[in-house]
Amino acid sequence: MSHNIENVSSTKRKITVNIEAKEVNNSINSTIQEYGKSLNLNGFRKGKVPASVIEKRFGEEVYNYATENLINATINKILEEEKIRPISRVHFENQDDAKKLTRDNDFEFTCSFDVLPEIDLPKDFSEYSVNVESAEASQEEIDNFTTQIRRSMATLEDVNEVRNPVDGDVLLVDVEGMYEGTPVPGMGAQNFLMQLSDNKDATNKEIDTLVRTAKPGEEVKGTMVCPDDYANADFRGKTIDITIKLHKIHKQILPELDEEFAKKVGFNDVATLKEAIETQVKQSKAAHVKSKAQQELIDTVLEKYNYELPASMVQKALSNYMMEARNHLGQQNIDPEEMLKALASLKEDGQKIAEKQTKEHVFLLAIAYRENFVVSGQEIDMYVRQLAMETRQSYEQVRDHVLQSGMIQDIQERLMAGKALDLMFDQAKHVEVASATPEKAEKPKKTTKAKEPKE
Question: Cα separations (Å) of 292 from 17, 62, 126, 283, 368?
Fold first, then answer.
């Protein structure tokens, strides 16, 4: 067997393999032998069917198996010997017209795949410094989160008096956005519930301000500048005419933080609930602070690097971005034609985001491979269980999907990249800075034994 490796680019390898007839015959013979071990055929004992009979009766199937086995074994041997690590699926040239092994004939095939580019990694990251905000949770943050939990179980009471909306009110409205007399896709809703907040940095501030000028039954008009991250890039930065009709004002009645409420949310008493809330806020803030600092660090480091990106990884990241965008737009009941236009306008942004994500991922994988990081089966299992909880599916459903879709490699790479980022963060100098506006924490979970997700 001989092979030739061609460096098509810094991120792509092409391998041409020639296998001599003797090896071809050996592969066919061993496949026939293995095939016959469990074969039941009238007139023969199990496992005793002659090789000539098997080859004559089941030749096509046997030769397919033999071809697949020989190619896989050969590629794996070459990759191991040459210390090459593919980061994409192996693509075989002329795959649709792929030849099968034939006795007494040489066999040749060509395949290609993406690899990581060679990156001149620093010995460590001690020369870098990163700002790390205080992860200490304030009483105000704990109180705000407690209010979020109470609001999640609040009841609504109709406001009968004629007045303008105020902070905390839940409003039933119709909203319509128009640009030069044409409806803006995704900027219209009927009988939409919105809650007013005292958060001055809230999104859609123009809508929030405008609706406060209306009384139930009234229609008010105003304008807003379309956000820079709006789904349809054609409308970004443009002034949109907004019409809001206020149907009803509801007052939110928050439950008291008492023993009865604690039991409703799954805790034995108020003290246990408060303790869980404080723990959750602290954990959530610590995770957010670390994630924010790590992103700052990787952004700083990558400013010094420029390398070719594997095309398959960029395409995969772009496909994921577009799929998420399609799902998001689909939830807004947008006209199919308008959805296609919105998706087309997002593709340029998606390409930039995909390239940025790929650049980060490639760098972190390069570190992970250099450090010989490995991912255990237990770590993958924990990841799958967490994914099942987040998607509210059973562990078995998610596990089976992961196995059938070939996501194992993606999960392994993601976990390895996470370990590499942790290494970078641990080695960098940490500069403590004042805490910024806190992020919302997740709802607290009971500290008792977790239950398995339901089917």
Answer: 47, 55, 19, 14, 21
Query: Residue 11, class by beta-carbon neighbours within 10 Å (0-12 exposed, 13-18 middle, 19+ buried)?
Result: buried
The b/e string for 50-88 (b: 16+ C-beta within 10 A; e otherwise) is eeeebbeebeeebbebbbebbbeebbeebbeeeeeebbb
User: For residue 15, what is the enclosing H or E element?
Assistant: strand 12-19
Distance CA 340, CA 326 (A): 9
On average, the pLDDT of the chain sits at 88
Beta bridge pairs of residue 186 = none
Instruction: Please give the model's pTM, rounded to 2 decimal places.
Output: 0.80
- What secondary structure letter does DSSP report for 104? T
Q: Please, is 435 exposed, middle or buried when counting C-beta atoms within 10 Å of its C-beta (0-12, 13-18, 19+)?
A: middle
Spatial distance between the Cα atoms of 311 and 318, rounded to a whole number of angstroms: 11
Provide the strand spans (E) within 93-234: 107-114, 129-133, 155-158, 170-179, 182-195, 219-225
Q: Using CA of residue 402, residue 407, residue 412, residue 413, what is the dihedral sign? A: negative
266: left (phi over 0), alpha (psi -120 to 50) or beta: left
For residue 140, is pLDDT > 50? yes
Contact residues for 391 (Cβ-Cβ < 8 A; gap 6+): 398
At 41, give phi and psi (nearest 5°).
Answer: -140, 130
Mean of pLDDT values over 383-393? 90
Burial class (CB in 10 A: 0-12, 13-18, 19+), 379: middle
CA 358 to CA 318: how far, in whole Å? 10
Beta bridge partners of 245: 174, 219
If DSSP codes are grouped into helix, strand and coil, which group holds residue 2?
Answer: strand
Helix or strand holding residue 142 (H, E): helix 139-152
* Cα–Cα distance for residue pair 136/254, rounded to 1 Å: 27
Picking from 308-312, 328-332, 442-446, which range would have the lowest pLDDT averaged per residue? 442-446
What span, in angstroms and rounded, lies between the C-alpha atoms of 307 and 301? Answer: 13
DSSP state, residue 433: E
Q: How many CA atoms lie within 13 A of 360 on its CB side?
A: 18
Interacting residues of 434 by C-beta distance below 8 A, sequence separation 6+: 133, 134
In 272-357, the DSSP E strands lie at: none
Q: Please report the sign of the dihedral spanned by the C-alpha atoms of residue 202, residue 207, residue 210, residue 215.
A: negative
